[in-house]
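Input.
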Amino acid sequence: MPADDDEVLTATRFRAMGTDVEVLVLGPVGGPVDGGADDLGERAAVAIERLESKWSRFRPTSELCRLNEAGGSPVIVSQETLSVIERAVDAWKSTGGRYDPTILRALEAAGYTENFDDLAKQQGDPGQMDSRAAARPATGCAGISVDRLIGAVILPPGVALDLGGIGKGFAADLVATELLAAGARGVLVNMGGDLRALGEPPAPGAWVVEIDDPLGTGRTGMVTLGTGAIATSTRLRRAWEQDGRPQHHLIDPRTGEPAHSGLASVTVISGEAWRAEVLAKAAFVAGAQDGAALVEESGGTGLFVTDDGEVLELAGLDGFRP
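Output.
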């Protein structure tokens, strides 16, 4: 999008956290940032790699893997990991369990046992996967303990976390904040559809974002963001087959199976990307009616696309239309 003559807008694109990342940085020409906005894009890439090294379930040395394997013992983790787990537990409570980070074993039972990029390389597409263990309902977060005094987390025996979605959203929040503190005038961080806008938007006053339209309805349209966040959850991405049955990564915690709620995708606009992400997942699991109530009661808005292509706009979305 165009910038005024006294502004420079740079874009940095890379692959991280199993998704395509784009970081847009707005800053004055010759401004106070050492090395310019291009350096801030590189700084974002370094920061996201640091967070992925802590939160990935596919890196055996990550803090998350150490925690999942601790068998009920306390694990000292970084402040970022404490913060994302606190948010995940709070989201489980506030959504009535519709968002649940303890679905890891259910994801594995459905066949999602490797980084999705690696699965695609090995099989051409995610393809046919062998039978796994039977799905079980998620355990829930009731027994998880976070001790900020010593910087430790305790998971009850048998409980394992997946921080994939909320991790991408929280990474967008953290990186946007870091770049603004480093001298950017405005930032838009896009973590594969989890977007966080912070600081000043470009002229004429907003970032213009196209809402994901996985069914190709042509009716989802655009929204504008000054500061805030948007996230989309859809069953049509990260999808595969196991024993001839279609699977996807949006697990219903109540059953341990991929959710089938009559929705193809849910888009949520909220103040922070981690919150938009968990609300989108929770609303997808809940279905159109209960999901809309959940988003609106949380102060957000958004748009649902049903399996048959109907587009449902929530109250308040008009205020974000161009």
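The helical segments are 37-55, 63-68, 79-94, 104-109, 116-123, 164-181, 273-286, 288-297.
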